[in-house]
Design goal:
Layout: H1 15-18, H2 29-36, E1 44-45, H3 57-66, H4 79-89, E2 96-99, H5 102-113, E3 119-123, H6 128-135, E4 140-144, H7 153-159, E5 164-170, H8 182-196, E6 201-205, H9 220-226, E7 230-235, E8 248-251, H10 254-263, H11 271-281, H12 284-307, E9 312-313, E10 319-323, H13 327-336, E11 339-340, E12 342-344, E13 349-356, H14 360-374
Parallel strand pairs: 1-11, 3-4, 3-5, 5-6, 6-7
Antiparallel strand pairs: 2-8, 7-8, 9-10, 10-13, 12-13
Helix pairs in contact: 3-11, 4-11, 5-6, 5-10, 12-14
Length: 379
């Protein structure tokens, strides 16, 4: 008998792995085209918080220069990319961990710090990967009720147990778009370190950081320099327009960076992703344009939701969470009209849709379709 099967022939696996509910991504355009016989150009995807501008030209040019070297493995340490990040953020390159998207950074923290008998604290309505990273290690989930759709940091602090090793915080939060001030985050970090020392690691997930106005953006690099128990994760998938290449990074002091390096897969960031990320990270004009398009699109969507009398959560990211009632029915009706959005029932929000901010014309198509589906008069 194979050691991977039981006496009755069933596959044997740990219970905590069998209990995982796999991540369900936003519906791909190709799937909808096949299912409904639509033309790709007639489909608008506003489901996965992608940058509607696509990849910056600077990154595309960097990829073209890298193509000739694809017969060789990528730099396993990401020396050049780390040094570009280190120079701009004024941190040692040794404090940087590269990931296959920022999701990878979250998983690396889980692999490095969690196991059966330990626990992780995270908020209700927070990013689903916190649950997955915890579940895959057989650790205990401590889910703290949300406060106004966002993190209740006081309650999260009180929820930290003797076996807690990780606290996950998304800022801005996905899928609700809420934001915590620098004062609130700093106060939480101070309380955690004063009470638990470095036994509890805090992960500050800033995948949408670049969409924040300058006057409220947290100086999380300064926080990493101050707190040895902090990991900050960032993504190139959103504002930098590189979602298909899967590249992100984490910032932490050496003790945590060393632990993540021990469990990181070799060559986890491919050559094209490293080259494109270096170019995009220094493309200030593209980043500013992305932020401008997003800000204007957010105003466009939220103004339309106001006209339609729909409740929504004011967003600090590149999507808006909006209450539509029977979200599954509304979603299906939008799909038939070639508009892909994101139902969030799996996140405990069955009457809400998360709608990514697109180009002005894409937003308008969504608004017209939603108006029609809900049977409301356009103002």
């Amino acid at each position: 008998m194979s050691e991977n099967t039981s006496d009755n022939g069933e596959l044997v696996a740990p219970a905590h792995i069998k209990d995982i509910q796999p991540y369900i991504p936003g519906k791909p355009i190709d799937d909808l085209v096949r299912e409904l016989g639509l033309k790709p150009e007639d489909v608008v995807k506003l489901a996965s918080n992608e940058n509607p501008l696509g990849m910056p030209a600077s990154a595309r040019q960097a990829i073209e220069r890298e193509l000739a070297g694809l017969g060789r493995y990528p730099d396993p340490g990401g020396y050049a990319l780390k040094n570009v990040i280190a120079k701009r953020l004024d941190v040692p390159a040794a404090w940087i961990t590269l990931g296959n998207g920022s999701n990878d950074i979250l998983e690396l923290v889980g692999m490095a710090l969690l196991e059966p008998g330990y626990s992780a604290v995270y908020s209700q309505y927070a990013f689903v990967v916190y649950r997955l990273a915890t579940q895959a290690r057989g650790a205990e989930h401590i889910v703290v009720p949300a406060k106004e759709f966002g993190h209740d940091l006081d309650a999260m602090f009180e929820a930290i147990a003797p076996n807690t090793r990780v606290v996950f915080i998304a800022n801005p939060n996905n899928p609700t778009g809420t934001f915590l001030s620098e004062q609130a985050v700093t106060g939480f970090l101070e309380r955690v370190q004063a009470t638990f020392g470095n036994r509890v690691t805090v992960v500050l997930d800033e995948a949408y950081n670049e969409y924040l106005p300058d006057d409220i953006r947290i100086d999380s690099v300064a926080l990493v320099k101050r707190f040895k128990n902090l990991v900050v994760s960032r993504s190139f998938s959103k504002a930098y327009g590189l979602a298909g290449l899967r590249v992100g990074f984490g910032l932490a002091q050496p003790a945590l960076t060393d632990l993540m390096a021990r469990v990181r897969q070799p060559f986890n960031v491919n050559s094209l992703a490293q080259a494109a990320a270096m170019a995009a990270f220094e493309d200030d004009a593209f980043l500013a344009h992305s932020a401008k398009v997003n800000s204007e699109g957010k105003q466009q969507l939220q103004a339309a939701f106001d006209r339609l009398g729909l409740k929504y959560v004011p967003s600090y990211a590149n999507f808006v969470l909006v209450h539509v009632g029977d979200a599954n029915a509304v979603n299906q009706a939008l799909l038939k009209r070639g508009v892909i959005v994101r139902p969030v029932g799996a996140d405990g929000l069955p009457e809400w849709l998360r709608i990514s901010i697109g180009l002005p014309e894409e937003n308008e198509i969504l608004i017209r379709a939603l108006t029609e589906v809900l049977g409301k008069e356009a103002a």
